[in-house]
Amino acid sequence: MLKDILSLTESINQEIAKINFGENPGELYEPIRYIMDLGGKRMRPLLVTLSYQLFHDDLGPVIQPAIAVEVFHNFTLMHDDIMDHAPLRRGKATVHTRWNNNIAILSGDVMLVKVYEMFMEVQDSQFKDVIRKFNRCAAEVCEGQQLDMNYERRLSVTVPEYLEMIRLKTAALLGFSTELGALLACASPQDQQLLKTFGTSVGIGFQLKDDLLDVYADQSKFGKQVGGDIIANKKTFLLIKALENATGEIRKALWAWMEKEEFDKEEKVLAVKGIYDQLGIKKLAEDKMNEYFQTGFEALKKINVDHTRKEKLLSFTEYLVNREK
Asked: How far is CA 252 from CA 55, 195, 255, 262, in A?
């Protein structure tokens, strides 16, 4: 089954390579080709196509809208990297680092325009619905990014606040991806909503998985520095729960590490990870993650198609659930 997913991913990459974003001026269009060529899991266009394939075998009507979602995702990454002052993206220099902020902003704007152009490939009867749902999703992604930046300046963030932030910033686009596939397949409104619930729920689960991997991944498999969130005092589910549950000397030690401006990175990661272990934070995060995955899988079960048609989508999702990087 995963062989089919790899084949579908290759088809998506081939279609992405064919996109003509423009040629002149080169400074505007080269950064777009650069970020799109950096690759990635192509999770979002895969979710669009796999959701569509619950109802239909052909892929003709869904490929361009699916790739539009991937272009939008990369547009958000390009602008997020500017806001986060990020030097690297997938191991390569970010667009604003390789060129400059102004070029990254303008190239990103062109990508967003291209997204709308690609959505024009959908049937006229579906166009307004697709654009309305996409616009709501795009606004939610921006709301999530703003909340994430707000939380960086706050001393405390609650678990419900954090979960809502990741629902908006990360999971909303996955929910739109699965809903879009169902919409383009002319699925019933109920099945469209169930697929949106599936995508959104597993999207939150995936972000919680990322929080866990950042602390507990095998460094040789992870692909980036383990403990980066700890070093940056990033308010992930793990840190928020630790601050909620820590008392006495443990709480003092945790705050002392958070307040230090000069420290050995490896020492801080080991110390904070040790505090998480004392407080049972890993289990709490795994339980919350699995709660969202279960909600997603329950929604998928209710979709009114034969179970065999769900196997590809289930296989892909389970692969992502069990990943180690």
From this structure: 55, 44, 5, 17
Q: Name 89's bridge partners.
A: 92
Token couple for 78: 């390009």
State the residue range of the domain holding 11. 2-215+292-321
Residue 186: CB atoms within 10 A of its CB come to 15
Instruction: Give the residue from 81, 48, 5 showing the smallest Cα distance to 323.
Output: 5
55 phi, psi to nearest 5 deg: -115, -25
Domain count of the chain?
1
Decide if 278 is inside a domain. Answer: no
Let me know: does 177 contact 69? Beta carbons within 8 Å. yes
Classified as helix, coil or strand, 93 is strand
Which tokens in the block code for residue 259?
């307040």
Could you read off the pLDDT tens digit of each residue along the chain, which spans 325 residues? 667 888 999 999 999 999 999 999 999 999 999 999 998 889 999 999 999 999 999 888 999 999 999 999 999 999 999 998 888 888 899 999 999 999 999 999 999 999 999 999 999 999 999 999 999 999 999 999 999 999 999 989 999 999 999 999 999 999 999 999 999 999 999 999 999 999 999 999 999 999 999 999 876 655 556 788 999 999 999 999 999 999 999 999 999 999 999 999 999 999 999 999 999 999 999 999 999 999 999 999 999 999 999 999 999 999 888 887 7
pTM score, whole prediction = 0.94
The answer to whether position 48 is within a domain reads yes
Contact 319/5 with Cβ under 8 angstroms?
A: yes
- Cβ proximity of 115 and 67 under 8 Å: no
CATH number at residue 96: 1.10.600.10
Give the whole-angstrom CA distance, residue 48 versus residue 174: 9
- Cα separation, 178 vs 318, in Å, equals 16
264 domain residue, yes or no: no
In this structure, is residue 267 part of a structural domain? no
Q: Phi, psi (5° rounding) for residue 37?
A: -80, -5
